[in-house]
Design goal:
- The chain has 320 residues and is mainly α.
- The chain folds into two domains: 201 residues, Alpha-lytic protease prodomain-like, CATH 1.20.1510; 82 residues, Alpha-Beta Plaits.
- The protein is 62% helix and 10% strand.
- The chain is built from nine helices and three strands, in the order ααααααααββαβ.
- Strands 1-2-3 form a three-stranded mixed beta sheet.
- Helix 2 runs antiparallel to helix 5, helix 3 runs antiparallel to helix 4 and helix 5 packs antiparallel against helix 6.
- The longest helix is centred in the middle third of the chain and has 30 residues.
- The protein is elongated.
- It starts with a helix and ends in a 14-residue tail after the last strand.
């Protein structure tokens, strides 16, 4: 037996506005500016790669292309996330940020694998590289990355989508530094293998970031318990409340980054359904899950059941 009336009023106290700060016009404008800068640098690096024949610049070019596509995905996701929830999509497009970030991570991992194989081949048979031209393209790329970072910096913690975009540009800036160092080494010593070494450095920067993004997005898509939320502790806290006999069907997951949700069935004393005590108990439960744990869960769905209630799946609540 569920108390839907009290459940709805409890939810209303927390609100049902699932809009995202990270999808505001200001944040979308930042993404658009960063995309414009990245696209300009991408065009310059394409010319530089053709002129110099540098693998490090080619890897950085691929990385920049992934960054540009990632920013496009981020911009599209931010636009979708701004759309309101409907009866068909009750959370709106909140999960668009997770899907976009997962796609970015997968593409980055593929680029890193390709670049690593190519770099190893060039360590064995290094081609001729024009270091004097390479350094200028590296400097131009670094300047563009710094400009894009400045645009995204203040919004980088808004959500997973923007964080992925910021991290991509950060790694690309470090890749540009690697290109500049390789160009200087080649210009001063003629050691053209520095280009392949720089490529491996860029790959080393890409892989950990791709793994972290894949791990976090995978956790959300698989509806794993939010990090920092211990369901055993949640169960213990709920059982410590007066009139609560049993807690079952306890689930917690994330719709998107920063949006944990929790549901639970609570077996309570029979008199709670006759003396109106369920309203007070619902408030205590929602305060408990929202304030007592490292992860604040403001969207919770609680179903109250009387002792002896049998669920449709055949589970019987604790007998008196």
């Amino acid at each position: 037996m569920s108390d839907h009336r009290h459940g709805n009023s409890g939810h209303a106290a927390h609100g049902h506005d699932h809009s995202v700060d990270a999808s505001t016009p200001t944040h979308r404008r930042r993404l658009a500016i960063a995309l414009g800068i990245t696209t300009s640098v991408l065009a310059a690096q394409l010319v530089g790669t053709i002129v110099t024949g540098s693998l490090a610049l080619l890897v950085d070019l691929f990385h920049m292309a992934v960054d540009a596509s990632g920013l496009v995905l981020a911009l599209v996701a931010a636009t979708l996330m701004a759309r309101p929830a409907t009866d068909r999509r009750t959370w709106g497009f909140r999960r668009a940020e997770v899907i976009a970030a997962a796609l970015q991570a997968g593409i980055l991992a593929a680029v890193a694998i390709f670049a690593t194989i190519e770099a190893i081949q060039r360590l064995v048979a290094p081609p001729e590289i024009d270091g004097s031209l390479l350094v200028w393209f590296g400097v131009f790329g670094l300047a563009g990355n710094i400009a894009a970072l400045a645009v995204l910096a203040s919004a980088r913690t808004a959500n997973l989508n923007l964080r992925a975009a910021f991290l991509e540009v950060t790694a690309d800036a470090l890749g540009s530094v690697a290109v500049i160092v390789a160009a200087i080494v080649i210009g001063l010593t003629g050691w053209t293998r520095a280009d392949a070494v720089a490529s491996l450095v860029v790959c080393a920067l890409i892989v950990p970031r791709a793994v972290v993004l894949l791990k976090e997005t995978g956790s959300i898509l698989l509806e794993s318990t939010p990090p920092g939320l211990d369901l055993d502790q949640v169960r213990s806290h709920l059982l410590a409340l007066d009139h609560v006999r049993e807690v079952h069907d306890l689930h917690a997951s994330r719709i998107a980054s920063g949006l944990p949700v929790l549901s639970a069935h609570l077996v309570v004393d029979p008199e709670c359904f006759h003396d109106g005590h369920t309203a007070e108990l619902l408030s205590k439960v929602q305060v408990c899950v929202a304030e007592h744990f490292p992860v604040s869960v403001e969207h919770s769905t609680i179903q109250f059941e009387p002792v002896g209630h049998v669920d449709p799946d055949g589970i019987c609540a604790t007998q008196p």
